[in-house]
Specification:
about 40% helix; 4-stranded parallel β-sheet; homodimer; DNA-binding; about 350 residues; elongated; alpha/beta; Rossmann fold; 434 Repressor (Amino-terminal Domain); 3 domains
Chain lengths: ~350, ~350
DNA sequence: GTCGTTGATGTAACCGTTTACACGTAACAA
DNA sequence: TTGTTACGTGTAAACGGTTACATCAACGAC
């Protein structure tokens, strides 16, 4: 009760108290095998009594590793951000690592990134707006890294959402649901996700032998509504409207309703992302769900592997060797005739 | 181009290359004053050329501080989580600190917390489900801490959302909007936020002289819908439904619509939190907005202050000395008769 | 009885920084 | 000239761990 006042016990304090050398304390606490059980027990008891916690800095100095990984994220919002971190944290905890978080706000991050070098063993980087050259310049060389949804060709393992496959699956679903003429509301040009989804949709439509018109959008509800208006007016002929994200799909849904178009009877509607709102609108929106937490966990797992064996994983970098997480189709009411009461 | 291959340059490498001592390098790079400008420039040039980044561990060992703060959060979802972290990160970056994130999943966290001791200079802890005794036992003694929405009486500065005042403000608003019989859908028992909101609502209703029935909920949409069903069926008489969070309010809103109850004409609906979804539902939800990012930033600011001056801030701990952030009333369409087109 | 051998423990060097102190130099006052 | 000061720089000792190597005791084989 009264002996534990010392703010920070060191390994030497423990050694003195337990009447052994510092080496023995270190060995006892780190699960070394050549330690007499009796001694190990005594050391553990003393360590607990003194509230000894190894100094992370000293350890990292000695071991040449920090047991921490850095996460660099863009200025994200909401569910995506929290799910990603939750997934990462889960895996990080499992691996006995710590998580150092950095948000890439505005223009900073340039030197912020470099400063991470001394603090972490590896990096999970998500920076859809940065080019490969920029990134490469900023990143500490020789630090294992895993990239999320980045341009390919970086020196590190890459992990991405297979937008193309997801979009293709959605087109297939629409076709199976009876669509013959699809309007795809694309996301902003230059956005990697948007481009991939468009390409996947176009390819799948071609394969399926159905017509597909691409309408330019920008991921906002307004742009979805505008596209829907064109469909409602007949300026674009379509019996299915597939938006590159849920926001546009919902905008379209509202607009179609406003124009007196029946969904899904006259026009089927589908989105992408499965944002929380998707199941709340009426009719509930069919969309593609990405398991964000799994994406985060997988990224950490990959990074941890690359940290212990830097060579591994380098192979899979080149061309399109990035590992992909395939989104899952979530069918709700905007693409199915039956007017179900329950919404999943 | 070819000289920067060395994975990790140390201060000695820089010293050798710049033909000075390590002490001078350290002084030059850390902005010490007694350094000849010419020498400082040379050192900086060499450091940049070699890509030298100080080893954080070594530095923390030498300085007895880590320049990192730990954040311990419950398993939160969505916007709240991301906003809080965004606010924290903003302040943390401004202070030149790093952010170590830990999510308190399930039962773990007990030893996880202790392990943080060696890695951070202070802690921001949010653990609404833990009692004061539990927390005190887990927390490394002598580590500055700031608590968010925790039970009072802990050895550290506290910062909280004034849930009671917020709930009271909402009840007042409902009364002003014509409500005479309020149903309050409470959050899960044991949750501090939920309890405070309920207490605030009950007290305000009493003051205003209106009837208030408490219906048990659990922060999920389903529980909000269930409560609304009771109101719609007449099992509970109420002309206003005030849910302890937006999720329940939205669940209620949808359920009321389903039962053919007009909102806000027959029953006014209000939530708490102002999640993004709140302004998207129709009619748009009246709610209380908490500036979460500001809360996070303020917590970090307070912590940073306590780290440089451990004595400071200890005064404000006792009774109810916790600093409080008061939520702001956001009036939308679920409580006002006028069927406005625009939604703020 | 001596000599390996083996296994448990201690000693001390090292990881990369910071910084108190020592030292050398130059400027200036006496 | 000789002290005194001030300033710039170098030397070396921490900081708290890990671990190669040395040491030492116990034991069995000869």
């Amino acid at each position: 009760m009264s002996t534990r006042r010392m703010p920070n016990a060191t390994i030497r304090d423990v050694a003195r108290e337990a009447q052994v050398s510092v080496a023995s304390v270190s060995r006892a606490l780190n699960g070394h095998e050549r330690v007499r059980p009796e001694l190990r027990a005594r050391v553990q008891e003393v360590a607990a009594r003194l509230g000894y916690v190894p100094h992370a800095g000293a350890r990292s100095l000695s071991l040449a590793r920090t047991s921490a990984i850095g996460v660099v994220l863009p200025d994200l919002h909401g569910e995506f951000f929290s799910e990603l971190l939750r997934g990462m944290d889960r895996e990080v905890a499992a691996q006995g690592l710590a998580l150092l978080l950095t948000v890439l706000q505005d223009g900073r991050g340039l030197n912020t990134l470099a400063a991470l070098r001394g603090q972490v063993d590896g990096l999970v980087v998500m920076a859809p707006q940065l080019g490969a050259a920029e990134l490469r310049a900023q990143l500490p060389a020789g630090l294992p890294a895993v990239f999320l949804n980045c341009v390919p060709g970086l020196a590190g393992a890459a992990l991405r959402v297979d937008n193309a496959a997801g979009a293709a699956a959605m087109v297939d679903h629409l076709v199976a649901a009876g669509a013959r003429t699809i309007a795809h509301v694309a996301g902003p040009v230059g956005n990697v996700d948007a481009e991939e989804r468009r390409a996947g949709a176009v390819a799948a439509a071609e394969r399926a032998g159905v017509a597909l018109t691409v309408v330019q959008g920008d991921f906002t509800e307004a742009s979805g509504a505008a596209a829907a208006a064109q469909v409602a007016r007949g300026a674009i002929r379509a019996d299915a409207l597939f938006a590159a994200n849920d926001a546009m799909a919902i905008g379209a849904l509202v607009a179609l309703k406003g124009h007196g178009v029946a969904v899904p009877r006259q026009v089927r509607v589908a989105g992408f992302d499965d944002i929380p709102l998707a199941r709340l609108v009426t009719p509930a929106l069919t969309t593609m769900r990405v398991d964000i937490a799994a994406l985060g966990a997988r990224a950490v797992q990959l990074l941890a592997r690359r940290i212990v064996a830097p060579a591994e994983g380098l192979v899979e970098v080149d061309p399109a060797g990035a590992e992909a997480i395939v989104p899952r189709l979530v069918v709700r009411d905007t693409t199915t005739e039956t007017d179900r009461e329950t919404q999943s």
